[in-house]
Amino acid sequence: MMEFTRKVSDVLACSFSSWYPLFEKVTTKSVWVPVPAEVAAYIRSGGTVVSSEATTADTNTDDEEDSVDWEAAEEGADELQRPEFAPFDAELRAAVAAVGGAAFVKLNWSAPADVRWLSVGRALRCQSPEDGCADAGAASADLHLVVRRWEDINPAAEFRCFVVEGHLIAISQREISQYFPHLERDSSSIITDITSFFKEKIQAKFPLQNYVFDVYRSTKDHVRLVDFSPLAPPTDPALFTWDQLTGKHCLRCESAPSPGSPLCLGCASAGGALPVFQYIAGADSIQRAPYADAELPYDVHHLAESGGTAAILQLLQKSQNLGKSDQSTDDEDG
What we know:
Radius of gyration: 24 Å
Largest sheet: 5 strands, mixed
CATH class of the largest domain: Alpha Beta
CATH architecture of the largest domain: 2-Layer Sandwich
Number of helices: 10
Number of domains: 3
Shape: globular
CATH topology of the largest domain: D-amino Acid Aminotransferase, Chain A, domain 1
Oligomer: single chain
Structural class: alpha+beta
Strand content: 15-25%
Strand order of the largest sheet: 8-7-5-6-9
């Protein structure tokens, strides 16, 4: 049984600026911009970087009566001092333009998936620096903001792959909160395509022996690299468990694996070839998505836990009825 511990060298090898030059031809066009020390310090202090050039066109409504004079409301309060980072802003704008004008923005290792619920359409698409959001993780390496060309991704075509001692042992459906019926039907070709891609494009180039990589298989025979991660928590194991990936349990069940194999004797005898592919087999097997707690306000989660779906529906119904009541009052006043 193995124990995977996240090491600094593993984290650095999975930093975008470390692996992108090696795999530029098989991944999405990207540009990375070093985050200046003063910007990183400001973000870590709790600040939010918003360009002075950002417009409010997208957030304004046509009803001027609903507008609020926040300056007047805050009269007497200390003036908010927001530093300007003009050179950094200019670099980001140039980077977005370089990848086509629309981008997905992330840090060296992480992406803002936990705030997706706040964005329009739950997308992470950016068109200017003020759209991007960088978390303030404490990293020993230089911090970079990665600007990747925007692509509309079908979650049914994303897969997380696990490599142990240089061998691809497991593949998982990446989006575990949805059921995609075609995955079972296409499982054989999915395994073949990803395995071929790994052997031809990744295995001999990536410096680590134990790691995770994500791919996007848009159509048959077309696989592209998305990202790398260390093979250790807190990396999400998707539809596998860390007990399975470390060899405590069989990759297909809870039994102990056979010596020298990630599979138990029963699963190996049943035709258990590697890599093992795990996918949601039915709507009743859907799992809770990672960051689900962070993607909705606490009040919504609390309401769901205390009263279930019925309580949420009841709240929505009351809101709808209240809106109708207000409209009715307005009509009478008019």
